[in-house]
């Protein structure tokens, strides 16, 4: 049985939902239906920033003798807090490097995010700083994926962001139906990765 590890924040954890409703659990269902020999582990922690992930990555990696596929989904809370993009990039690179050192054979999938606000007229405030931040934030994930030559999910929340019926009342976290769409977004990229593994 191969090991598939999801490492992320509340989007991965399935905030306020049953464990079976999180997108990693939904992906396990797709894995089983496809007859692939993988067990998915959900290491999502609600509220976690990339800095928090950097602090806990080594302890998580040590729990596994082998990791075949590692899915990294962090950065949403960095965007919400306006953490400098350079810091987020450095933290995510640290995590990617840690995975490569501990499990050099692992295939890595990086999950992209986009700045979670509808900027609208706000983009013109502050000399356009908010708009610049959004552009830099949105670009950092693809740049990291290309730099590290890893598989890339362009936008985890595609089709879910801003859709009231697919989110919890807070308007930020996907509900159970929204998590199904997250699973579909990730599965498009992940399925070929799993099928290519020996």
TrEMBL record:
Task: Read off the PROSITE patterns from this record.
Answer: LIPASE_GDSL_SER (PS01098)
Where the record annotates domain SGNH hydrolase-type esterase, the positions are 6-181
The highest taxon in the source lineage is Bacteria
InterPro entries xrefs:
Ester_Hydrolysis_Enzymes, Lipase_GDSL_AS, SGNH_hydro, SGNH_hydro_sf
Instruction: Identify the CDD domains for this entry.
Output: Lysophospholipase_L1_like
Name the chain's protein: Arylesterase
User: Which organism does this sequence originate in?
Assistant: Hymenobacter endophyticus
**Lineage, opening ranks:** Bacteria, Pseudomonadati, Bacteroidota, Cytophagia, Cytophagales
């Amino acid at each position: 049985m191969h090991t598939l590890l999801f490492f992320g924040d509340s989007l991965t954890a399935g905030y306020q939902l049953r464990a079976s409703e999180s997108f990693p659990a939904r992906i396990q269902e797709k894995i089983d239906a496809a007859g692939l020999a993988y067990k998915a582990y959900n290491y999502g922690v609600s509220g976690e920033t990339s800095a928090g992930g950097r602090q806990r990555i080594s302890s998580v990696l040590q729990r596994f003798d082998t990791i075949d596929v590692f899915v990294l989904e962090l950065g949403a809370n960095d965007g919400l807090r306006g953490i400098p993009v350079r810091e987020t990039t450095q933290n995510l690179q640290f995590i990617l490097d840690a995975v490569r050192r501990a499990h050099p054979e692992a295939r890595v999938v990086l999950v992209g995010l986009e700045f979670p606000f509808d900027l609208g007229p706000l983009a013109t405030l502050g000399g356009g700083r908010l708009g610049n931040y959004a552009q830099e934030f949105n670009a950092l994930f693809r740049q990291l994926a290309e730099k590290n030559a890893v598989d890339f999910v362009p936008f985890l929340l595609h089709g879910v962001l801003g859709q009231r019926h697919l989110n919890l009342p807070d308007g930020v976290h996907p509900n159970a139906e929204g998590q199904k769409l997250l699973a579909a977004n990730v599965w498009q990229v992940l399925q070929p990765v799993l099928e290519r593994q020996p």
